[in-house]
Amino acid sequence: MNAQIITIGEELLIGQTIDTNSAWIAEELNLLGIKVTKITSISDKKEQIIETLDINSNEANLVIITGGLGPTNDDITKHTLAEYFDSELVLNEEVLEDVKRIIGARGANMLELNINQAMVPDKCKVLRNPKGTAAGMWFEKGDCVIISLPGVPFEMKAILTQVGFPQIRQKFKTPFILHKSVHTTGIPESQLADILKDWEANLPEKVNLAYLPSPGDIKLRLDISGENEVELHEILDAEIEKLQHLIPDAIFGYDNDTIEAVVGKLLLINGLTISTAESCTGGRIANILTSISGSSRYYKGSVVAYSNEVKQEQLDVNASDLEKYGAVSEQVARQMAEGVLKKLKTDIGIATTGVAGPTGGSEDKPVGTIWIAVASKKQTFAIKKVFGNSRLRNIQNSSSFALNFLRKLLTENQL
């Protein structure tokens, strides 16, 4: 079972609009056990639509089209499809009611262009649009189903979610397909692959593994498909358990988890507040932590201490330690974490100081050298990491590693 996606619109071809529709549709179809083999973007020209439909309908069991269904004269997809399927456009009373409801809710008057949107090919099955005025259309050509949808993302998603996908499930018998994502941090991709090579070599034949790296986070995605859903869950769960024994410190979450959300939950569970003192990360940790709704219950504030003067005046970092050990040192990182904890009266302080680069490194402190400290009222922990030469990646990796360091300390009840 395979599918192809066609997106229609000149705005896609000139780079004015980014095609997010295809990514979402492909991901959702994959969850249904339907493999997307081709994604094509074309202009809103009759000849191109027909030519692409001829090719795709002969190659796929399912073709999903988005775009070209608006009320204006330059949107010709519906008329082209009516011609392609030898159909006449007829007024659909249910679609007309939907159009009236949407236009009325906007406080606008019905125009002839709006009424024309209720005209649909008589040889299609209508997929009603709960969010807009352009209905979806379901056609069949031999063994291929062709679905045409509006290009507005929230309208397209509503149609597919509410009516399109349920009908696709009824039409095509597809296997169960399960995905499990394991989020890791703190281990470079090559090292992670080396640690997991024996586990990877012994994965069950049904399980597919992908390494999906991003700054500060490597996601391990495991996919499995088959007819017995319970058995599939058991196989995946067994492999996840093996990973938990192999890389327990690196795993911070699963599926849609983020490190900032995981840390936030731990802080809430333990009734702890936190503040941040950042030098090389420039406030990024504060930004990440406060991206979570409700973070004001545990996050109090930040001191971005980029200069030595601010470190001394705002965080009480000892001037002689700055001179003796330098700003990028364990001693300074510890004092920064302890200083912000006291200054902002929180239970925990977390600090970063380092050489983000690409300039400023030395033989003993090369670019990418970062010291991270986490302080509580009981004790302070510090750790050094050396990343790479990219300034942006160093900032991203330092922030992610710092939060994971905090997560491990919270999980182990060391704070």
Task: Note down, in words, how this protein is organized.
With 415 residues, this protein is of the alpha/beta class. It folds into three domains: 2-171, MoaB/Mog-like domain (Molybdenum Cofactor Biosythetic Enzyme, Chain A, 3-Layer(aba) Sandwich), CATH 3.40.980.10; 176-254, 2-Layer Sandwich (Alpha-Beta Plaits); 259-411, CinA-like (Maf protein), CATH 3.90.950. 42% of the residues lie in helices and 25% in strands. The chain contains 16 helices and 17 strands. Strands 2-1-3-8-7-6 form a six-stranded mixed sheet, sandwiched between helices. Strand 7 and strand 8 form a beta hairpin. Helix 2 packs parallel to helix 7 (153-171). The longest helix is centred in the last third of the chain and has 21 residues, at 391-411. 37% of the residues are buried. The model has no long low-confidence stretch (mean pLDDT 94).
